[in-house]
Amino acid sequence: MAVAAYRAPWRELRDPVRLNAWLGAIVVLMLAWTMNAGVREGLNLHLVGATVATLMFGAPLALVALAAVIAASAVNGSIHWSAVGLNLLVMAGIPVLLTSRLRRFVERHLPLNYFVYIFVQAFAGAGVGVVLVGLAATAALASAGAYPTALLLEEYLPFFLLLAFSEAWMSGMAMTLMVVFRPAWVASFDDKRYLARSPGPPRGEHRDNSGEKGNE
């Protein structure tokens, strides 16, 4: 968290639009984390929102925002204070890291267009991130002896597969709406890179149906 706070581009938040978007995202994430489904005592499932936060603000600011959400969850009693660090590592660190690495991979190896951004980075990235969160949380609880491994594998981990689809759908929808209507909120989306069009034929010329050039 110290490294994230040091590397965070705080100057960007001098822009009122960016600041309001960041603070608003924290509030929305707090609400999303409170709407959880409890499998058993201490085994809660909820939307994470780490992928959307990372695509909107970058990894450092996303980690700071999620840390604020986790601290708020500890204040209202949803998370015990002794588990804040572990929740920050599992619920924030893993999906934020995955989203950052996936973004680099996509920009280097895949075509830069709108559909790749939405379906690979937002949709697939969010879904895979939740699955990794479920695996890490299950492993942590099992290794700590908090619950029997068999119970976690049967009654806890499988629900993350269902949650992954919900997370992917919500993240993809949210990013679609924002890049269309509020692109200034999304730091990772560049109109010039993702919406660039190939140049058309030179002015003064056109092709008729026979494929031969003609003058306009």
Molecular structure report:
- The protein is mainly α and 216 residues long.
- The protein has a single domain (2-189), classed as Arp2/3 complex 21 kDa subunit ARPC3.
- The protein has 9 helices and 4 strands, in the order H-H-E-E-H-H-H-H-H-H-H-E-E.
- The chain has helices at 2-7, 16-34, 50-57, 59-75, 84-109, 114-144, 149-155, 157-181, 191-194; strands spanning 37-40, 43-45, 205-207, 213-215.
- The strands form 2 sheets. A two-stranded antiparallel sheet has the order 1-2. The protein has a two-stranded antiparallel ribbon with strand order 3-4.
- Strand 3 (205-207) and strand 4 (213-215) form a beta hairpin.
- The longest helix is centred in the middle third of the chain and has 31 residues, at 114-144.
- The chain is globular.
- It starts with a helix and ends with a strand.
- 29% of the residues are buried.
- Mean pLDDT is 87; it is low at 198-216.
Which tags fit this structure?
4 strands; two-stranded antiparallel sheet; 216 residues; single chain; Arp2/3 complex 21 kDa subunit ARPC3; 66% helix; mainly alpha
Q: In terms of topology, how is this protein built?
A:
Layout: H1 2-7, H2 16-34, E1 37-40, E2 43-45, H3 50-57, H4 59-75, H5 84-109, H6 114-144, H7 149-155, H8 157-181, H9 191-194, E3 205-207, E4 213-215
The string of secondary-structure elements, in order, is HHEEHHHHHHHEE
Per DSSP E runs of 2 or more residues, the count of β-strands stands at 4
Query: At CATH's second level, what is the architecture?
Result: Orthogonal Bundle
What is the strand arrangement across the widest sheet?
1-2
**Main beta-sheet strand count, sense and barrel state:** 2 strands, antiparallel
Mean pLDDT: 87
Tally of discrete structural domains: 1
Query: Structural class given helices, strands, pairing?
Result: mainly alpha
The N- to C-terminal Cα distance equals 62 Å
Low-confidence stretches: 198-216
Beta-sheet strand percentage? 5-15%
Categorize the overall geometry. Answer: globular
How many helical stretches?
Answer: 9
- Give the CATH topology: Arp2/3 complex 21 kDa subunit ARPC3
